[in-house]
Please model this.
Amino acid sequence: MAIPEVPVRREVRMEAGSTGAGPGPSQEALAAPPVYLDGRFVPAQEARISVFDHGLLYGDGVFEGIRFYNGRIFRLEEHVERLYTSAGAIGLSPPLSPGEMREAILDTAARSGLRAGYLRPLVTRGVGDLGLDPRKSRRPSVIILCAPLTVYESQRQRGIRAVIASVRRPPRVSLDPNVKSLNYLNNILAKSEANLRGVEEALLLDLEGNLAEASGENVFLVRGRTLLTPPAEVCLKGITRSVILELARGVYRAQERPIPAAEIFEADEIFLTGTGAEVVPVVEVEGERIGTGQPGPVTRDLMARYQEITHRSGTPIPYRIRWGDGEVTRDPPKPAPAGRASRG
Ligand SMILES: Cc1ncc(COP(=O)(O)O)c(C=O)c1O
Model:
């Protein structure tokens, strides 16, 4: 199905008083789309939060990573729902309703003027004192960042190499993996290990030694025409993971079950899934070739199906917004009906 082209207004203007001149901001920041910050849009290089925000001090907050393609936000409802589930799990009440959050995300995308890109809504605990107690933070902050799309096309075509990280995915009794919190240190340690060992990714095991996920993606093994993926008790219930399971229905068998680490090396194919990464083949783990050592046919098929669905569905971005005094008007105001214009 052909997607109608969405008209894009490129003349995104910054807030009054912002010339972008003066020392400091990098060219990158100057070029970055405006940032939604607690109800206002501000130029990226002027977007600031307090050093007393507990999101900074303790990683106390939650976030989402969302993508838009061809002027449409992919799986917006699911991302908003997961953001509120994550927030609820840590006793954080965003100052916006889910509907208002959805609108703020759409507006951020619209103001970027981009037709494809990445969105990052965050809810931080807000400003508190230097203690841990979240009750001291009275008002959570909402930030929504938008950035142009980074495409890992060559990695996707070639496939990537991975190691098994020495750090483990924390168990659910410590922190539910379905809380997408601002504290990603465990994942960063795994990624650093991959960097040190000269490969692109790290796979994390759970405490029992079963496969959990990658540093920022879910993982699938392919055996024949069966997809195997770890159960959501040990990993983030990725939205891309769910889409892949939907796409596989009726074409491949799929099992969500514990996967002992040894099974990794018996797979015909392995791939990772994530909003940012999309579907990425893994062709080597711990120096061992997976399957033929090339992206396999099932992975390629799902990559193509995923590409197709991301480009043909999603929530349209309302690009026709007006910018004035921090107010967002989606459509030009209607002229007053004739005869009533003189009143008031
Ligand atoms: C730890 C982790 N696992 C899995 C994923 C993939 O989730 P999704 O497909 O919803 O982007 C992410 C993405 O942010 C992640 O951080």
